[in-house]
Amino acid sequence: MKAVTRSPADTAPAAPTAAQLFTGFLTLGLMGFGGVLPLARHMIVEERRWLTAEEFTDVLGLCQFLPGGNIINLSVAIGLKFHGVRGAFAAILGLIAAPTAIVIALGAVYDRFAGDPHIRHLFAGLAAAAAGLLISLAAKIALPLRGNPAGMAVAARCFAAVAVLRLPLLPTMAVLAPLSILVAWRFAR
Amino acid sequence: MTQTLIALGLICTELSLLAFGGGNTILPELQRQTVDIHHWITAQEFSALFALAQAAPGPNLMIVPLIGWRVAGLPGVVVTSLAKFGPSSVLTGVVLHLWGRFKDRPWRRMVQAGLVPMTVGLVAASAALITTASAPNLVCAAIIAASAALTFATRLHPLIVLGAGALLGLTGLGQM
């Protein structure tokens, strides 16, 4: 990987300092509404050139493979790559510091005025819109399962177990995830 | 208080390691634990907190520290953040070293492809649970339907949809 010669356009991406990792991810945390990933790629690959496009795709593949938010894992992986544990802390703290403060401030406003009918109505409308976003997200990620009846059957069982039967997540995944992987393996042959 | 913090920490640690496919897959379990089992908040409050987290910038797991704050104040924020982001981060660090060895192996793609239907089922379950708790009347149900249809069919920015929903709610139309 390191021996590959880079094209002139992406010569020697600048290795960020821990402080730059912190401020970079702080910016991402503040800017990303409803999906930080496209912004993250823009900043990391095109703007600051911490990684090449190939390196970014490779690290993202790792982050999508593992549990946890993709962007959270991405911050940890990039921080580790440049400055070890210190870099990982700088990156992830930068990413979650501002959103945590903002979300708690919003929560405090909600708590303070929860008795006020106007605020209650406002939050009812906000919650309804957020629920709609989630429905459309579910529909979008279900689209690739068209033409994959086995995959749809697994998804339906998972939905029934969690939403209808209200079974705990751990046993549900312990049973269905290996089954789902087995199905994917059988169909790929 | 300490017991509450320990319970919060354990729940978030488990969810941290089970969150395949991103944050929205763990909402049903988070709701089951905080609403059904521990009775820390109601289903309606959970939906309101979820909406708040959606309206804030950043990663979409921000409902976790928000619940920590709601249940146990600042110590709750610290415990839930550490427990939610710590274990998956440590795992990322460990696997990062091994990644070069198996990223191109066929089984890696099989496992990843096999997890997709799980993600679909879990996000659909999240949508169903949040929707059920967010539709106390016809106007809210209409907002949900419009928001889902608009964001599915167009590239409208989520913040615009959330803002419009909040404004429609503020009019008090159809609400008591």
H-E order of chain A: HHHHHHH
Residue fraction in strands of chain B = under 5%
Question: In total, how many beta strands of chain B?
Answer: 0
Backbone shape of chain B:
globular
Estimate the mean pLDDT confidence of chain B: 91
Overall number of structural domains of chain B: 2
Poorly predicted tracts of residues of chain A: 1-9
Helix content of chain A: over 70%
Intertermini distance of chain B:
36 Å
- Main β-sheet of chain A, in a few words? none
What structural class results from the helix and strand content of chain B? mainly alpha
Account of the protein in words:
The complex is a heterodimer of chains A (189) and B (176). Chain A is built from seven helices and no strands. Chain A has 189 residues and is an all-alpha fold. Chain A folds into two domains: 18-146, no CATH class; 147-189, no CATH class. Chain B folds into two domains: 2-133, no CATH class; 135-176, no CATH class. Chain B is 79% helix and 0% strand. Chain B has helices spanning 2-18, 27-37, 43-55, 63-102, 106-134, 138-153, 158-170. In chain B, α3 (43-55) packs across α5 (106-134). Chain B is globular. Chains A and B meet through α1, α3, α4, α5 and α6 of A and α1, α2, α3, α4 and α5 of B.
Q: What topology emerges from the helices and strands here?
A:
The complex is a heterodimer of chains A (189) and B (176).
Chain A: H1 18-31, H2 37-47, H3 53-65, H4 70-112, H5 117-142, H6 149-164, H7 169-188
Helix pairs in contact in A: 1-4, 3-4, 6-7
Chain B: H1 2-18, H2 27-37, H3 43-55, H4 63-102, H5 106-134, H6 138-153, H7 158-170
Helix pairs in contact in B: 1-4, 3-5, 6-7
